[in-house]
Design goal:
- By secondary structure, this protein is mainly alpha-helical.
- It folds into two domains: 164 residues, Cytochrome c-like domain (Cytochrome Bc1 Complex, Chain D, domain 2); 139 residues, Cytochrome c-like domain (Cytochrome Bc1 Complex, Chain D, domain 2, Orthogonal Bundle).
- Helices cover 36% and strands 1% of the residues.
- A two-stranded antiparallel ribbon has the order 1-2.
- Helix 2 packs antiparallel against helix 7 and helix 10 packs across helix 13.
- The longest helix is centred in the N-terminal third of the chain and has 16 residues.
- The termini are far apart.
Amino acid sequence: MHLQFKPIIFIVLFMLMGFYGIQDVKLIYPSYFPKPVYNFKKNPLKSSTVELGRKLFYDPILSRNNTISCSSCHNSHQAFSHAGNHLSKGIEDGIGERNSPAIFNLAWQKTFMWDGVVTNIDVQALAPINHPKEMGEDINAVVRRLNKSKEYKTLFYRSFGDSIATAERAMKALSQFQLTFVSVGSKYDKVKQKKAQFSRSEQAGYELYKANCSSCHSEPLFSTYDFANNGLPIDPTLNDYGRWNKTMEPKYKQMFKIPSLRNLSFTYPYMHDGRFKTLDEVLDHYEKGIEKSPTLASQLQKPIIFSAKERVDLLQFLAALNDSAFISDPAYQKK
């Protein structure tokens, strides 16, 4: 009798625990970071699912013609941005509508995309997959291809207890891999941990940052991840009004998600449309390029002006936010 019931009991316990509900990967971050806002109870990090997500992230199987992967626009060596390209590039030489944002420290973000139209990272990947100029594919077609692959059948079995690929499972695997992108190895972080000291110029730049930038780019994530109108004139070709394009509410006109100041050396060009190639151009904008409008951020009603020395100091501090260990970490790269 015992021999007959043991397998049944094991299977029941296995199902009750939830094969993919056992977390064996911890998100590691410093004590001065806030608690992540992502609910890991609903999608616990599991090493096999992270590995499935890595495979999917680097696989062009997600695109209609098998030429574009997530990594095509989010390069690990560029802090998962598309450095050097002001707009994203997709299948058949298609050009997207916005600059590919850097993706890291996602567990602390409640909304995604420049306009915040996606409110759950577990479904975020559907947007580029379905976009006609990015991956140009239907998720159901992707799932059919995954279910024909022996390799993916094995990977889905290891992650979910059976070999069946579904859209939900694929999206959760992708989000698990991306949630592990934690950038906390900059000089700033070493200073916070009392393992290093700022130079005089970096310290002076830090004070300038706190006085002029911190209300939108707050420590330690260096963004509130809220939305703001930073006075950029509308590009007449793109005609992009940010959150207003999706909500049509006047209060959101020209408001875009505030990006982090971390890893700026790896994520150029800057702004939602990549219009500025250098940080000097960004500072020029805040000094003499701000366009007044009803939704302009209150902090920008007056120009932000720095002397030549102050610019140098501020840029030195911003460089101290670069995380070279993050962009070279093999845990995030293709196997």
